[in-house]
Every structure is written in structure tokens, then in C-alpha cells.
Design goal:
Length: 707
């Protein structure tokens, strides 16, 4: 990726519009009209063999006939004619970028149309021309007044947000929402990547990362072709600039819709969640949340911490905000000092509820503008408060603008974020506009305000942090384990004893054990290990041993071991007569502990991914699992554990002793390193793993090798 190569697309000295038309119903007419009306800073060349002038500008019959310098070509003609235009662009030698608005290419999945798109790409690459699209609305740059979008209600208001989108209509909706704010929200750049035949959404992100006019990056994503590259890029971006992403395809139905719309794989939503969390991307769920969060990030000062005070004059609205704040562990209510609480009691009406709970103040509807201002001043001065959410629906006898004037005068004196929710409606318009004109973000509803504040804090926590260890193992390179390499070469999965050896060689403490080949050998081995023991069948053809009666647990005596050995062999031979039995594994029986599962899978977008959750049957029943893309740090492993209900059990409940969570986190890290070092491992299950008060015991392991 080369961000510099996109400069001629966003900052062209001249633009040729191929397909320019005098027909106002044509998109190409709208492009040209916008460029003229917005006073684009470069030269404009309409191209159309059927027109001599378009909107007062001389029109050329073909691109090769344009006499002036052409840096960017915008193509809006039927798809079959696009390759010829690209050939003319290549022959000119001055064209550096192309935006292909035309549809009818690979998105149709029609073989000849897919071939047509490949032809366009081949021409462009041979000439060094970067291409956005096809099937797109192109780009907007408010700095030089460039727009190739036909989004309705477009307002070219300069600002510091860089928007990207994989949907033209959704991208247009984002611009409509920014324009509909009490003070229309400005932006720096906007880009719709369409089919991504050349320029991808990741290259747009990289370009925005290097653009000093972009302070916040926000966009709509349906999927990526290289998830690990997204993570590497986001890792760097989010330490300097916030990155907000509305990633769709959360549900199975949504994922299928995404596939049919763009041909991009949506991937597992939980894996996207994990990847975003690891790389600092703030994921949002709705268009409104995307715009709300972008707005607060460009308007509010960065918070110093995550301690939030909620100040409301409407109890119900305050409780809605409390629910939202309480739903996310990234934030917590501030603990106001006794001095602040006492001062609030002196300022607010007698019926006010102060710090019930601490950090929540219901001023009641009796609070006038003076009480709003004084209460806000007191909580902002409290050293335990990092941010304030002020909520209200000022009654008819207290115009919203009067309240806005009072709180704005206070808020601007402090370097702490203040977010205001004046419920949506005409009566609130003047007050909200007054606040936003003075840099104080406002919101329609308390839940939206609270969610924007949460995202502000999440993004703030990420900024200016140190380097991550995400790619540490990748940078060092990897050496696959010899047993894994051998199994891959032989086209088979690892036997459990082999998998145990692999785990042991990665520094993972495993239970003692040995393969036996007779009843007598199994008994001798059990006596050496010490009772009780477990017997397990070892066979290449049997992956799920218990399905074939291939596991015997808690064997206490030599007689039990001998009998269990014979029963086990007989059961497997009866249920899987063609299975080749390599022997019977004898290991210690471990009781107690909390059973969890640790797994590895290979995702199409993100590569090796580690899973964690409740083990045994619970993983199928509750599906209480979390994911991380390998490799990751101990801190990430601890967060991974804390995301599951298993964490509550591991901490100890109802008098139970806490389990060794630190040892479990270290195990997760090592499994991640194993996964990244052995690309031949397709899947792996450690299930169950008994987490003990000290350490853990891996009770069963399955390792599937790619053919």
C-alpha cells in the first residue's frame, strides 16, 4: 500500500468527467454541477461525443482530445465502454487516478463482467493509474471543493473527520446525518471504494492516517480481504487517531446479505470483535452512533480517565443513561468527594437526589439555569471526575437556550469533556445550536449521549499508548514443530501423544502419560503414575473418543485398569471396526478445578484465532466463548478470560477458592504462539482444561492438520 499514490485522486489539479451530460437526471450532470457550484480549485474537462457544451463548459468528444493536463478521470458511462477510456488515459501519460462510477462489473458475478473488471485493472496497473471503484460514488475533499458524489443534501463543510464507506447509499446517509446536526458537522474527506478493484478500504485508512487534516477516521465496513493487515494498520492508526467502524454482518442473515452485496466475506462476528478490540478500533452498532461518536471526538477535549458523572434534571432520562454506562466496563461512575456532595446539597433544590449512587445527581425539574451552571461547575472541579454527561428536558418556563448559555459559560472553563442531551424537538433547537457553536456536543437521547461518551473514553484510552506486541512472533518468524510438519506431509492429524509432546515443547506443563499396547502394560503404567488414572484410545481414525467408548475415567485399582482396557478395546473395535488402534494412553485422573476449553481455528480474514470459554458440555450449551487473534499479550489474555461467564467461576463463588487465572492467561498466550508458529494446524481443542487453585491440567487435546 502506498498512501502517497492516492494524492492525485484527492488533490487533482484537473478533472475530466467522461460521460458528462446536460441531462439533470444523469449522475454525471450532478458531478459537474457540484464541481462548478462548489468552485473546485482545479480545471474541469467534460467529455461526451454527443455534447459540445455542458453547463457552459466546452465538451470534448473523447478523453484523448482533451488538450489540457488531465490528472484525474471520472468515468460515468456503461461498463463495456470503460476499458477504451482507460486505454486512452494510459496513452495520455498524464492521468494519475481514475474514479469509475459505472456499475456492471464483478459485483454482478457474471463471468464476462468479472473479466471486464480485470481488463480495466490490467490497463490501469500497466500505466500506473490508481483506480477507485468501479460501482462507486468516488471521493469528496472539502479542502479543494472536489466531489464526485451524488449524495442528496451534500454540504461541503470543512472539518476534521475522514469518512470511508463500502456502500454508496450508506455513505450518503452518513453525510445527511452530519448535515442534520444542530450545527452541521464538518468533515475533511469522504470516500466510497465500491468494488475495490484497485484501491481498497485499507488504503483509504492508510491515506487518512497520513493526512494532517483528518483527526478522526470513521466509516462503514462490510468486510476486509486481509484481516491481519487491517489489524496491523489499525494498531498504528489508533495510537495517533481514533478509528470508528460500523461493521455490519453481526447476524447470520446480515452476513449473507453482505456476501450478496459486495462479494466480501463477512467472517465470524465474534472474531471481528476480538480483532477490533486488540487493534484499538472502536466498533459502533448504528449509523447514528457512528456520527455521534465522530462528533464528540472532534468537539470534546480528550478525557484523562474513565470516571463519569451524570447530571440530570429528569430522573427517567438519567436512568436510561445510567443503564448505558453500566453496560460497558470501559467506564465507571465517578466517586464525588464529600466536599463536592456537600456543596451540591447547598446549591440544588431540597428534593434533589445527590450521589444515590455516587456519581449520579438528579437535580429535579426545580433546577433553574443557575443551579445547572453551579452543579456543573462543582462536579467539573471535583478531581475524581473525568467527564460529565448533562441531561435535561427544560420545561416551558425555562427555555433551553437560557440553560445552554449558563452551562456553556462553565463548561468552556474546564479541560474536561461535557456532553449535553437536550431531548430532540423544536423547543430544544436553539439551545442545542448555541452549545454546538461553542464546541459542546449535544445529543437527541440519553442513551446516544452515554454511548458517545463511552466511545470517546475508549478511543482516548488507546491514544498515545506504547507499541503493541501483536506482531512480535510474526516479526521473529516461526519454525513449525517437526511433528506437525511430519503429520502435514503424511496427510494426517496428530495423535494425542504427539499433540501432548508438541504442547510440552512450547513450554506448556502436561500430565505424565504413556502409550500402552496390552492389559499388563497398562496396569504397570498405572502403578508407576499412581492411581487414579484415565485410559484413552489412540487411533488416527477416532477424533472424538467418547463417541466410541474410547475413554475410561477415575480408575482406582489394577483390576479396574485391566478390565477397563479390555472393555475400551472391545468397544472401539465394535463401533469402528476399520479403525487402526495405535494403543491406549494412560494418564493421571485429575478431579476438581473449573473446566474450560481453549481452541484454535484459522479464520479466512484473520488467520490463527484462539478461543476460550467454559469447557466440557457447557461450551455447546451456553456458547460462552471469547476470541483473540494470535499472537497476543498476557493483558489481552486476561481481558479475554474476563469477557466470559467462566471468569465468575474462576474467581470463586459461594466460598469457593479462586483458581489460577494468571497461569491460565499464560497458557492462552502460549497457545497463540503455537498457532502462529504452526500454520499447518487447522484446528485445535484443549477440552477440558481443569484450572486449579495452582496451575492447570490439560485433560484432553485434539490437533487437526491441514491437508
Amino acid at each position: 500500500m502506498n498512501a502517497e499514490s492516492l494524492q492525485p485522486i484527492f488533490y487533482p489539479r484537473s478533472v475530466a468527467i467522461v460521460g458528462a451530460s446536460n441531462n439533470p437526471d444523469k449522475a454525471s450532470h450532478q458531478f459537474l454541477k457540484t464541481l462548478i457550484e462548489e468552485r473546485f480549485t482545479g480545471d474541469i474537462f467534460p467529455v461526451n461525443p454527443r455534447e459540445t457544451k455542458v453547463l457552459g463548459l466546452d465538451c470534448y468528444p473523447s478523453l484523448k482530445d482533451v488538450s489540457g493536463y488531465v490528472e484525474l478521470v471520472v468515468i460515468a458511462i456503461p461498463a463495456p465502454g470503460v476499458p477504451e477510456v482507460m486505454r486512452q488515459a494510459a496513452e495520455r501519460g498524464d492521468v494519475k487516478g481514475a474514479i469509475i462510477v459505472s456499475a456492471g462489473f464483478a459485483e454482478t458475478a457474471i463471468p464476462e463482467r468479472v473479466k471486464l473488471e480485470k481488463e480495466v485493472v490490467a490497463i490501469a496497473r500497466s500505466a500506473g493509474i490508481r483506480v477507485i471503484g468501479p460501482n462507486c460514488n468516488g471521493v469528496i475533499n472539502t479542502e479543494n471543493r472536489l466531489s464526485t458524489s451524488f449524495a442528496p443534501g451534500l454540504q461541503m463543510i470543512p472539518g476534521n473527520i475522514g469518512f470511508f464507506t463500502q456502500s454508496g447509499a450508506t455513505g450518503g446517509s452518513i453525510l445527511m446525518l452530519t448535515a442534520a446536526q444542530p450545527k452541521p458537522l464538518g468533515f475533511s474527506k469522504w470516500a466510497h471504494v465500491g468494488n475495490m478493484c484497485d484501491v481498497t478500504n485499507l488504503e483509504i485508512l492508510e491515506y487518512y492516517a497520513s493526512d494532517p487534516s483528518v483527526k478522526v477516521i470513521a466509516g462503514y465496513m462490510e468486510g476486509v480481504r486481509d484481516g491481519r493487515e487491517l489489524m496491523r494498520l489499525a494498531e498504528k492508526i489508533t495510537r495517533k487517531k481514533p478509528l470508528l467502524v460500523l461493521k455490519v454482518g453481526r447476524t447470520e442473515v446480515g452476513s449473507r446479505a453482505t456476501l450478496s452485496h459486495t462479494g466480501t466475506l463477512a467472517g465470524s462476528d465474534k472474531i471481528y470483535d476480538a480483532a477490533f478490540t486488540q487493534s484499538g478500533i472502536v466498533r459502533v452498532d448504528k449509523l447514528e452512533e457512528l456520527v455521534d461518536s465522530a462528533k464528540v471526538l472532534v468537539m470534546a477535549p480528550p478525557p484523562r480517565g474513565n470516571r463519569v458523572c451524570i447530571l440530570t434534571e429528569a430522573g427517567g432520562l438519567g436512568i436510561i443513561a445510567m443503564d448505558e454506562v453500566g453496560s460497558d466496563p470501559a467506564v465507571r461512575l465517578a466517586s464525588l468527594t464529600p466536599e463536592t456532595q456537600k456543596a451540591l446539597a447547598e446549591v440544588l433544590p431540597p428534593m434533589a437526589m445527590i450521589c444515590k449512587p455516587n456519581g449520579y445527581i438528579d437535580m429535579t425539574a426545580a433546577a433553574m439555569e443557575r443551579e445547572h451552571a453551579e452543579a456543573l461547575r462543582l462536579v467539573l472541579e471535583d478531581p475524581n471526575v473525568d467527564a460529565v454527561l448533562l441531561i435535561g428536558l427544560p420545561p416551558t418556563f425555562l427555555p433551553a437556550e437560557r440553560v445552554a448559555q449558563a452551562i456553556a459559560a462553565v463548561a468552556k472553563k474546564y479541560d474536561k469533556p461535557v456532553l449535553v442531551c437536550f431531548m430532540t424537538g423544536k423547543a430544544m433547537e436553539d439551545g442545542r445550536r448555541y452549545l454546538e457553536e461553542r464546541g459542546i456536543p449535544t445529543f437527541d437521547t440519553p442513551d446516544r449521549a452515554a454511548r458517545a461518551l463511552i466511545n470517546l473514553i475508549k478511543a482516548g484510552n488507546r491514544l498515545n499508548t506504547g507499541n503493541s506486541n501483536l506482531s512480535a512472533v510474526e516479526k521473529q518468524g516461526y519454525t513449525p514443530h517437526p511433528l506437525v510438519t511430519q503429520a502435514s506431509r503424511e496427510g494426517r492429524n496428530l495423535l494425542e501423544p504427539e499433540a501432548i509432546e508438541v504442547l510440552r515443547d512450547y513450554g506448556i506443563k502436561m500430565q505424565p502419560g504413556r502409550i500402552t499396547h496390552s492389559r499388563e502394560e497398562a496396569v504397570r503404567c498405572a502403578q508407576e503414575i499412581g492411581y487414579p488414572v484415565v485410559l484413552k484410545i489412540v487411533s488416527q481414525q477416532i477424533v472424538h473418543k467418547s463417541d466410541y467408548g474410547g475413554v475410561k475415567l477415575n480408575l482406582q485399582t489394577a483390576e479396574e485398569v485391566g478390565r477397563a482396557y479390555e472393555e475400551l478395546i472391545a468397544s472401539v473395535q465394535a463401533k469402528a471396526p476399520t479403525a487402526e488402534i495405535k494403543g491406549v494412553l494412560v494418564t493421571p485422573f485429575v478431579s476438581g478445578g473449573t473446566e474450560v476449553i481453549i481452541g484454535v481455528l484459522r479464520d479466512n480474514q484473520f488467520g490463527p484465532v484462539v478461543m476460550f470459554g467454559l469447557g466440557g458440555i457447557f461450551v455447546e450449551v451456553f456458547k460462552d466463548v471469547s476470541f483473540r487473534v494470535a499472537p497476543f499479550s498476557r493483558e489481552e489474555a486476561l481481558s479475554m478470560i474476563a469477557e466470559t461467564k467462566a471468569y465468575t467461576l474462576l474467581k470463586g463463588i459461594r466460598g469457593g477458592q479462586p483458581k489460577d487465572i494468571t497461569a491460565l492467561a499464560d497458557l492462552l498466550v502460549k497457545i497463540g504462539e503455537l498457532a502462529i508458529s504452526n500454520p499447518q494446524v487447522k484446528e485445535m481443542d484443549l477440552n477440558p482444561v481443569a484450572v486449579l487453585e495452582e496451575g492447570f491440567a490439560v485433560l484432553d487435546v485434539r490437533m487437526i492438520i491441514k491437508g
